[in-house]
Amino acid sequence: MVKLNRTTEYGLIALRYMMRKQSQGDVSVTSARELADEYELPFEIIAKTLQRMKESGLIQSAQGARGGYTIRICPSKLNVAEFLELMEGPQSLVGCTASAPVDSKCGCEYQKKCEVKGVMSDLNDRVKNFLAGILLTDLSEFKSIPFTPFFNTLDDSSLAQKESEAL
């Protein structure tokens, strides 16, 4: 359903690695070569990923022969939804649910007769809220994220009403 691009995935790997180093008291910088070697990832993509993360303000660089990167932001104050937006830009499940000015057209050929835009917008909001509830530190600490099925958010009478409307 939601698919991360490779740069975002590598960015999460890099942040997790740097957070783990910090938690062990290691204040040294992390280089693209170190990450590429540790995880057997392509050096060029890791280097570009770290550069993108630096440009977005997530990490900072130290120049020189022993240069590299350190975390600039506090990972406990950044959630996965914010990280995705920093790495990939605004996110939505379908184009018509993207944040856009009210007057703009979504470009969907079915817009005039669409019956699912409201449902897709709701689903988009739920996915964003779910991702917003996961802090980057949750990922680094392997915390289990409790799963609440969407239908449990409705009370029994609302569920019965929705089922009868569907028939």
Key words describing this protein structure:
167 residues, Arc Repressor Mutant, subunit A, two-stranded antiparallel sheet, 2 strands, 48% helix
Short summary:
This protein is mostly helical and 167 residues long. The protein is built from seven helices and two strands. Helix 1 packs across helix 3 and helix 2 crosses helix 3 (43-55).
- Tell me the strand percentage band: under 5%
CATH superfamily of the domain at 1-89: Winged helix-like DNA-binding domain superfamily/Winged helix DNA-binding domain
Uncertain spans, ≥5 residues at pLDDT below 50?
none
What string, H for helix and E for strand, traces the elements in order?
HHHEEHHHH
- Give Rg in angstroms: 20 Å
Globular, elongated, flat, extended or rod-shaped: what is the shape? elongated
Instruction: State the separation between the terminal residues, measured CA to CA.
Output: 27 Å
Please tell me the CATH architecture of the domain at 1-89 by its name: Orthogonal Bundle
Question: In words, what does this structure look like?
Answer:
It contains seven helices and two strands. It has 167 residues and is mainly α. The model has no long low-confidence stretch (mean pLDDT 81). It starts with 5 loop residues before the first helix and ends with a helix. The chain has helices spanning 6-23, 32-39, 43-55, 80-88, 117-132, 136-140, 156-166; strands at 59-62, 68-71. The protein has a two-stranded antiparallel sheet with strand order 1-2. 48% of the residues lie in helices and 5% in strands.
